[in-house]
Design goal:
single chain
């Protein structure tokens, strides 16, 4: 990385600074610097946000970390785009960390301001804009937090409903099996009553009872119904 002289005229050519006065551009050049950065990483997501970068020439690539991967979220060569410590104006109300990683694909020139200088600039030159940005930032943050809580509660409710359904299924199966057994026993009693009332001798009844007992022996003696473990 090498430093170059700062030109107020070059800064005025950028959309970010085109409305500033000569005195303001001179102030920027006195407190900032122009850096030529070789191809490679400039800063990493999660590191302390120390500098505010404005692209003069070159190509920047921004990426965000998703689990163990870096996902590219932006690539541009547009002069005047900015990145880095742009939340410095919020001060200690938010963690001052880079919220993305930045690298350059070729040697690139940046106008660079230290984070505290950028915060001073914003709060002294644009107090109304800072007030609006401040309110919008915290409104979005709170909205995202509330939305996230709501989504998590809905997901938990869906999971609970699914678990309840799964737990109810064995109980429902047991109820159905019991009802079916009750119907069969009732039908059997009716048939035995009809047989007993008919003109049949005792030998025939004994044979029928024996056949019933043999059929009962073929049925498993225990029903596979899930039970709660003993405490």
């Amino acid at each position: 990385m090498t430093e170059e002289p700062c030109s107020p005229g070059e800064l005025r050519a950028l959309f970010l600074f085109e409305k500033l006065t000569d005195a303001q551009l001179q102030w920027l050049c006195q407190r900032g610097r122009v850096e030529l950065i070789p191809a490679g990483p400039v800063y990493a997501e999660g590191d302390p946000a120390r500098c505010f970068y404005v692209l003069l020439d070159g190509t920047v690539v921004l990426s965000r970390r998703v689990v163990a991967d870096d996902i590219e979220v932006g690539r541009t060569s547009q002069r005047g785009v900015y990145a880095g410590a742009w939340q410095a104006y919020l001060g200690g109300r938010v963690p001052q960390l880079y919220n993305s990683s930045m690298r350059v694909t070729k040697p690139s020139r940046f106008f660079v301001l230290d984070a505290d200088v950028f915060a001073q600039l914003m709060n002294e030159w644009f107090p109304m804009a800072v007030h609006l940005l401040d309110g919008g930032f915290f409104y979005r943050t709170n909205l995202q937090e509330l939305t996230g809580q709501r989504e998590r509660l809905l997901a938990l409710g869906s999971l609970s409903a699914g678990l309840t359904h799964e737990l109810n299924n064995p109980a429902a199966a047991a109820v159905r099996a019991t009802a079916s057994l009750r119907d069969r026993v009732t039908g059997m009693r009716h048939k035995l009553s009809a047989i007993a009332g008919g003109a049949r001798d005792s030998a025939t009844l004994q044979t029928l009872i024996q056949l019933q007992e043999e059929a009962a022996e073929r049925v498993p003696k225990e029903t596979c119904i899930p039970r709660h473990p003993a405490p």
